[in-house]
Structures are given as C-alpha cells and as structure tokens.
Amino acid sequence: MKLWGGRFESGSSEIFERFSGSLDFDRRLIDADIRGSQAFARALERAGIVTAGERETIVTAFDRIRGEAASPSFYEGATDEDVHTLVIRKLQERAGAVAGKIHTGRSRNEQVSLDMRLWLREECDRARALLCGLMGALLDLAEAYPGALIPGYTHMRRAQAVLWPHYLLAYFEMFARDWERIGEARRRANVLPLGSGALAGSGFPFDREAMARDLGFDAITRNSMDVSGDRDFALDFLYAASVAMLHLSRLAEDWILYSSEEFGWLELADGVTSGSSLMPQKKNPDSLELIRGKAGRVMGSLTSLMVTMKGLPMTYNRDMQEDKVPLFEAADQLAGSLEMARVVVASVKLNPARPALAAEESWVVATDLAEALARAGTPFHQAHQLAGRFVLESVRSGRKPADWTAEEMQRFAPEFTADFARLLDPKEGMKSREIVGGTGPEAVSAALAEARERLTEMTI
User: Fold this and answer.
1) Is 37 a catalytic residue?
2) CB neighbours of residue 17 within 10 Å
3) Is residue 196 flagged as an active site residue?
4) Ramachandran angles phi, psi of 349, nearest 5°
5) Contact criterion met (CB below 8 Å) for 268 and 357
6) Which of the following is catalytic: 260, 274, 276, 381?
7) Mind listing the pLDDT tens digit for each residue in 169-208?
8) Which one of 13, 73, 155, 397 is the catalytic residue?
9) Which of 5, 106, 127, 181 has a CA positioned 20 to 30 A from the CA of residue 236?
10) pLDDT digits 0-9 by tens, 410-421
11) pTM above 0.90, yes or no
C-alpha cells in the first residue's frame, strides 16, 4: 500500500520502486514508529477525531504489531516502500477501517523526524553508558599501577616524565567530553516535531505540549518549515560520534605502538589479539587496529550527511531519505568500538620496568633542571641554555642522567648546586608538579579520586 496516489493516473515503475525503497534499512525504526503512532492516536482522541474506543483499538493493534515485529518472518514478502507504510498496512489488517484515521493531520515528514528523534535518544543513552564503562576501565587500570613512571611524548620524542595514571586520565578527560557532547546531541534531538505537518503546521488543534509529555520530550519545535528540512540533530550526533571515534583512534594508535616489541610497555590479552596465517610468532593488535579503522567509517558518515544536506532548498526533499544509513552506521560503529575498547583496557597488563627505563635513560629530566635553576634565581632563558648544554655534553660523551655525580655537575656549571643531583631521577622532578592538572603524585591521586566521583555522577 501507499500513503499517497490519488493524483496519479498510473503506478510507479518497478525500477523506481526498487530505487526509492527504504524498508531494508529504516525497518529498525519500527518500535519508534509504533510508539509515536500510539501517542498520536491519543492526541487524535484528545482532539475529538477518534473516540476512546477507536483509540483503544488502534493502540492495542499497535501493541500486537510490536510483538510480531520481533520475528524476522514479520518482514517476509513485504514490498512496502518504507517502515511507515508497512506499519500502516499492518494496522489496517488488525484494526480495520479505523486505521485510516491515524494519519489525520499528520505528515510522513514529521513522522520520520519523530521516529529518528525517538530512536536517537536511545542511541545517545547507549553510547553514554558505554563511555562510562570505558572510563571506569581506564580508572581501574590507572589504580592498578599508581606509581608507574612513563615518558610523555611530544613530536613522538621523549619529553617529560609523567605518571601512568596521569596519562590514562588524559583519555578519561577526552571521553568525559564525549559523554557531554553526546548528551548535548540528545538534548537537541529531544524536541517534539509532531504538529508541524508537511511544512505549514497541522490543520487540526492538537495539544503539542501534551504529545511532548506523552513521549518524554523536553520541548516542542517552534517552526514547522524548519522541522520539515531539519537534520541538525542527526549531524550533532554524527559530529559527537566522530570526535569520540577520533579519541578512540588515538588511544588505539598509542597502544598499538606501546604493545610492540620496540616499546614493550603493554601486553594485550589473547582475547583481543589475533595471530598470523603464516608467521607463528605473531600476536597482532587487531582489536585496536579495527577501532582505528572504523573511525574513518564514522567520520565518513558525518561527511555523507553534511554533503547531502548542504544544497537542499527549504523544506523537505527526498534526498533526506539518505540520512538514515550514515546515522545507523555511525551509531553501530561507535557502540561496537566503545564496547571493544573497554574490553581491551580491562585486558591490558603494564610492564612498568620498560617505560620507567625509557624515562631514566633519556633526558626527560632536562626541564626539571631548567626549572630548578629558575627557582634558584637564574633567568629562565639562561637556565634553558645551561640545561641544554648539559644535555648536549651528556649526549656527546654517551652519558645518561644516572651517570653524573653531584660533584661532576658542579664542575660543569657552578649553578648546579649539590641538591640538583637528585633531579636526575625523573620521579624527583615530578614532585614539583603538584599544580592542579599536573603529574605530581598528590595531584594525580586527587585527580583519580575526583574522576571516580564524576563517573559516579555520570552513571546515576
């Protein structure tokens, strides 16, 4: 069946039917479509368009359809152009003539918008819950190695020593922003479009605020033309999902490197790695590589919908049917990647000696020396030059920080008083970084505790 056709002398061609159909992908909106239609049936009763008995018949029939839709056989042989047409056909089969009233004053344009918003609310909730699981796993891993020392990098060169929990908390902050960003996307989606009609507003006196309360929306849309052509809420989610995948991809890249033989910092569990069909010794970080790869699919989904929308005239255009595939794709890939990342984090074992040795053998203490000179009264530019010359002399002579004694440092430069020798141990220099947000042991301990509290609030 079709929801239109009176103006046409003949039906659509078979090729057009096949080209324009969307049931194969928009069928996943069926539960949202049913819930929205049930709420609309109640609105029709409030507006005096259907009786209480007719509303009950419609709502009960929709309940039956929802139950039947759980079976794959429900869709067998269906030739409907989309999920909305399928649901109306099934309603007619179960409710009879009264089903013809369900579209009174309602356009498929606003129905599609409603279904997507209902569906997207739940996807946002799912993504945020998965983010919380990942953030919790990161905190667990941080607390498992509270004093572990690693070199921090800039330009992929060893830069300054940091605590392992401080490094993990950096990703916690990224994912916390993702949690907030997806929450904002949910807020923008949680606005009721029903009552907008096709573009000019409904010609029936529906109580839109009542419909919003019925379906749990925070507000109603304010302009019917805007609603008809609006997919900003979908773009908001796609942007938030893309940034979250960007963060996941960065974590994946780090750990692909850190678990390699060249680094040897991390060991990934057998359950999140795979082997080689030819090389028996291989243990490949496939889970992380797939997360890194899937980031491109989500970012591509954002680009896809932006390009679809960029040149559309006001208001609805059939191009907008192409919004669903990228939205569904991004939601699925984000959820799968977040779930996988949590399992990877929970599986990781840190080999603290390897990164600690990397820090101790390098010159990550150079900034600590320069800042100590500045605290002792040496102008910082001069202190920077002095510490740089000290590093250069060490590199030329093949000496590591631990190879220097206090006496030798003083002979190199009298500004290096006896107490400077302790700063050749990276752990000592970190103690000067107790500023909020820094890697000092007390600052990191407080940050971990605060992160736990924030996570608890996120999961309530």
Assistant:
1) no
2) 12
3) no
4) -120, 125
5) no
6) 276
7) 999 999 999 999 999 999 999 999 999 999 999 999 999 9
8) 155
9) 106
10) 999 999 999 999
11) yes
